[in-house]
Design a protein that fits this description.
Layout lengths: L2 H12 L4 E2 L2 H4 L17 E2 L4 H14 L3 E4 L16 E4 L15 E5 L4 H9 L3 E2 L12 H7 L6 H4 L2 H4 E8 L4 E3 L13 H5 L7 E9 L1 E2 L3 E9 L2 H6 L1 H4 L5 E7 L1 H11 L12 E9 L4 H10 L5 E3 L2 H9 L1 H8 L3 E6 L5 H15 L4 E7 L4 E7 L5 H14 L18 H5 L1 H14 L13
Parallel strand pairs: 2-4, 3-4
Antiparallel strand pairs: 1-2, 5-9, 6-10, 7-8, 7-9, 11-13, 11-14, 12-13, 12-16, 15-17, 16-17
Helix pairs in contact: 1-3, 11-14, 15-16
């Protein structure tokens, strides 16, 4: 690679101030927030327009260097940190917030807008954005599109895919796709926008997104329910789904509740040792949903305890990942299985830990209604790779997936074919070859 030619070419596109070559200036871009993935990049380039992104890709294509797009850098599978000497393409300057179309319940925003900024922008006119999770203040719209992020409200409103009405994106050759019209009914051929959702920056660089907005439910009620087992928690789901105001159903196994409260320095709302699983139920509506939730809790058989205020519950839930990270570098996996198989999954993981890493600590939490668990193993030691294979393969064997919302990144590329089969992966490779024949975009991510 001709480093001087690369840097000079990029400076001509975005300006000298937005090509960072100094190691100190690059460092925060070169490592993920849990400090698990780190590598050097020759430079960080910070474009501001789709035309500048196109110019950056052309320069990198001419020099023969890969490009890794990065949003808020909150990913957990190494998909947005540099590798193989690739240029780091920061999207943080794409912060345009378009005027909310109140009649259509839509808005167009830049890829670098954070989820929290988008929520505040929508709420300023009485609407809301559907997708939410703990990293909302850092995670960006572009990153959420690229990973088809989910979070806590999927039970009611779906993942990022259901919110995307169109994208503006730059292909590897510098050509532009612009599908920001926002028409709710458009059957003029396949949707390229939805092809890009979940593609993890391997097919194009998303620069702007047209998004669906939803009603802002200002009246809320929440409760933490202690269940005797994970099986009991799952058994609550059919009746929970009948609640018209149901907005989120989260599950924390006792260890997760304990570590989050300890990290926050607060007393657990319910004794973690008193139950086998804790379910956080959140309801939201235009009128107070408290009575609906109270009626459910009063009639549900086997509820051992109920407690906590909504603000406290979300504080605890949002800090579980942070609390685990403060204890060390965990083996962190994001899997989902049919809800009736959740208990079988956890039992298999516990059995594997007892056999291969008896000193390890298992911390599990997630999104109950979608069968999505975040499985964290601390102090796995040399057994880490074996446990990773066991957990991912168990999820597959139980009819599930190796990634429910974090993506494949570089962490799970070896399991993609085991999940989907060779025909599926061959089709993905064909699409990649057609749109990015040089392998310029996010090399090593999603496909081996």
């Amino acid at each position: 690679m001709d480093h001087d030619r690369l840097v000079q070419g990029l400076r001509e596109v975005v300006g000298k101030d937005h090509v960072l070559t100094d190691p100190d200036l690059r460092s925060s871009y070169e490592i993920d927030w849990l400090r698990q993935y780190i590598d050097d990049t020759p430079c960080v380039v910070r474009p501001h327009t789709a035309a500048e992104v196109a110019g950056v890709l052309r320069v990198c294509g001419e020099v023969g260097v890969g490009v890794v797009p990065q949003g808020g850098n909150t990913g957990l599978v190494g998909g947005s940190t540099p590798r193989r000497g690739a240029v780091l393409l920061s999207m943080r300057r794409f912060t345009d917030l378009g005027q909310v179309d109140r009649e259509a319940h839509q808005v167009t925003v830049g890829a670098g807008v954070t989820i929290e900024q988008l929520q505040q922008h929508a709420r300023a006119v009485g609407l809301d954005f559907a997708v939410d999770w703990g990293a909302r203040s850092s995670a960006t719209v572009g990153g959420a599109v690229n990973t088809d992020a989910g979070g806590s409200r999927v039970v009611r409103l779906g993942t990022m895919r259901q919110q995307v009405l169109g994208v503006q994106a730059v292909l590897a050759d510098g050509s532009l796709i612009d599908e920001l019209g926002g028409l709710p009914k458009n059957t003029a051929g396949p949707s390229l926008s939805h092809l890009l959702v979940g593609s993890e920056g391997t097919l194009a660089v998303v620069t702007a997104v047209r998004l669906r907005l939803v009603p802002w439910f200002r009246e809320t009620a929440a409760s933490l329910v202690a269940c005797d087992s994970l099986m009991h928690a799952v058994a609550m789901l059919p009746r929970l789904r009948q609640l018209s105001s149901l907005d989120a159903v989260e599950v924390l196994l006792p260890e997760a509740l304990q570590v989050a409260c300890k990290h926050l320095g607060v007393a657990p709302p319910i004794d973690p040792s008193s139950a086998g699983a804790f379910v956080m139920i959140d309801c939201a509506a235009h009128t107070d949903p408290g009575d609906e939730l109270a009626d459910f809790l009063a009639s549900e058989q086997g509820v051992m305890a109920v407690g906590a205020q909504r603000e406290q519950l979300f504080l605890i839930r949002d800090h579980v990942t942070i609390a685990i990270g403060a204890l060390g570098k965990p083996l962190k996996l994001d899997v989902a299985v049919p809800v009736m198989n959740l208990d079988r999954l956890v039992r298999a993981v516990r059995s594997g830990i007892r056999e291969h890493a008896p000193g390890a600590r298992l911390i599990v939490f997630g999104h109950l209604a979608e069968g999505n668990l975040h499985v964290n193993v601390l102090d796995a030691g040399d057994a880490g790779p074996l446990l990773k294979d066991l957990i991912l393969m168990t999820a597959i064997e139980l009819g599930g997936t190796i990634s429910a919302e974090h993506g494949i990144g570089v962490a799970k590329v070896d399991w993609l074919e085991r999940l989907h089969g060779p025909a599926h992966v061959a089709a993905l490779r064909a699409i990649k070859q057609a749109l990015d024949p040089q392998g310029l975009l996010n090399p090593g991510v999603l496909l081996p």
